[in-house]
Design brief:
Blueprint lengths: L3 E2 L14 H6 L3 H15 L4 H5 L3 H20 L6 H16 L5 H25 L3 H33 L3 H14 L5 H11 L7 E6 L6 H5 L5 E3 L6 E5 L4 H11 L4 E7 L4 H8 L3
Helix pairs in contact: 2-4, 2-6, 4-5, 5-7, 6-7, 7-8, 7-9, 8-9
Length: 280
């Protein structure tokens, strides 16, 4: 029967930047907002109407909050970022409303990060800062960009989730979000759980399947099992551990379909579990 695979360990946290660095960066924020706005519109013309339309103030506020929250976190790691979080989710919702995926928005975030890094290097030369400090800044900055992208994924997924009317589609969206973490977009997941009558478990067991998967497999699964069987790499999420009852259900439903079971892990580590299961 399916093999069990060990998920990879979580990476070590980044070293913190000295708080004094925040005071060097803070005066640069207004200039960065302007430069990022110009470069984003030049590189991604689709955003020109947002920067110059009726929502331009909200767009600029979002950019300002993203920059200021990073600097604030350097100065005080415990700083509240609720306003930034909601604005970044709104960016994701706008992308969904306008029919775009998140590739362009993520590209804009990374462009902004490169501009900020360029400015940091200039500050480093001015104040004779060590290359090690600038490297630490770059590491922290691009980790921060991943955080911004995750927030926008929440907003984007929220709109898409609301557009889905049937429970199966909502649950496929849930499975997608769980596998997109960490960090898990908990606000969106909680909403989708309510709408699809599914409870987020403390632990889950991922199962990697080999395509093609017969249509009858879905009918044989327990009702609380999340499944996406139409992908090139189909997979299942079984809430909780793989008990004897779950194993019997799985064997009967799969009816010979090749499968590999990953370790039972908390939902934030589900992506690691399925990744390793696919390597078996």
């Amino acid at each position: 029967m399916p093999a069990i695979a060990q998920p990879p360990s979580v990476g070590e946290p980044l070293d913190t930047l000295p708080r004094e660095f925040a005071e060097l960066m803070r005066p640069e924020i207004p200039g960065l907002i302007k430069e990022i706005g110009v470069e984003v519109q030049r590189t991604y013309p689709v955003y020109a109407h947002l920067f110059n339309g009726p929502h331009s103030d909200a767009i600029r506020q979002g950019v300002e909050q993203a920059l200021a929250a990073f600097v604030d976190r350097v100065a005080d790691p415990g700083t509240n970022s609720a306003l930034r979080d909601e604005l970044l989710r709104k960016f994701g919702r706008v992308e969904a409303y306008e029919g775009r995926d998140l590739d362009t928005l993520q590209g804009a975030y990374r462009l902004g990060a490169r501009i900020a890094l360029r400015r940091a290097k200039s500050i480093g030369r001015t104040y004779n800062l060590s290359p090690t400090l600038i490297l630490a800044f770059a590491d922290a900055l691009f980790a921060y960009v991943e955080e911004l992208e995750a927030l926008s994924r929440e907003g984007h997924a929220m709109v898409q989730g609301r557009a889905m009317s049937d429970t199966a589609a909502l649950r496929r969206q849930l499975l997608h979000l769980v596998l997109a973490g960490p960090p898990l977009p908990r606000t969106t997941i909680a909403e989708l759980c309510r709408e699809s009558s599914w409870e987020l478990p403390a632990e889950c067991t991922m199962v990697a399947l080999r395509a093609p998967v017969a249509e009858l497999v879905q009918a044989g699964l327990d009702r609380d099992v999340l499944a996406d069987l139409s992908l090139p790499q189909p997979h299942l999420l079984i809430p909780g551990p793989l008990t004897a009852e779950r194993l019997a259900m799985l064997e009967a439903a799969l009816a010979g379909t090749p499968a590999v079971v990953g370790l039972t892990v908390p939902p934030p580590q589900a992506a690691h579990s399925i990744r390793w299961a696919r390597r078996i």
